[in-house]
Each structure stands twice: as C-alpha cells, then as structure tokens.
Predict the structure.
Amino acid sequence: MENRDVEAVHQIEKECFALPWSKQSLSKEVDNPQSLFYIYEENKKILAYMGMYCIGYEGDITNVAVTAYERHKGIGRELLSKVLEEAETKGLTEFTLEVRESNKAAISLYESLGFKTEGVRKNFYDNPKENGLIMWKR
C-alpha cells in the first residue's frame, strides 16, 4: 500500500468494519517499517486489502477486507495466500489474527489456509459486542 491508496482503502475499511481505522491511522502504516499493508486491484480499482504487523518471526494480521460486491470470488484467498507466502520469504514463520465468532466465511477461509482456533477474546469486538476467536498458523 502506498499513500495514494489510503483513501480507497479507507472506503473499504468503512464498508467492512463497524469500527474502521481512520485515514490517519492507515497513513501511518505506509511508513511503519514493522507493518506490511497490501492491496488487490483490478483495472486500477482497489477491491481488497490486508494489513499485518511483523514482530520477530510472527505476523499479526490486523485487517483483511474485500469490497462487498467482490466477495465470494476468491480475492481474499488470493491476497492472503500471496501475502503469507511473501512474509515467509522474509522470515516470518507464525501468523495470528482475531476474527468475529459470527464471521463464518472468514473463519472458513482462514482454516482452509492452515489457521487453527487457539483461544477466545471475550467481548473483544464492539458494535455489536462479540467474542473474537484467536487463530494461529504455525
């Protein structure tokens, strides 16, 4: 992700999440040496993005989002697969994320890529209040 992508990524963030990251927060990640933010685009239009913090050998996936009208087309899988593959070439060997308990589509995607549920964060999410599953790929 580059600075010119922040506006489009912020629009996807607002569409997908009850508590979206601000444009300012996204902009800070562009220059953060510990974060990797990737976009997926077709015909110069950003359709999806994901973000990950890299700490030692671990990748903490912070965001995965696909615009509503492009879901269920394999874009999230393609993006996540490529990012995990690239992260492994940079020495990352374990990956973690949190996901809403009710987000069955995302959970299914993560499980298909080798993630396993290893814990629960009670009342982790707001709007609505909901538990977050802690998933790891080791």
About this structure: The chain has one domain: 5-137. Helices lie at 6-16, 23-30, 75-89, 104-112. The radius of gyration is 14 Å.
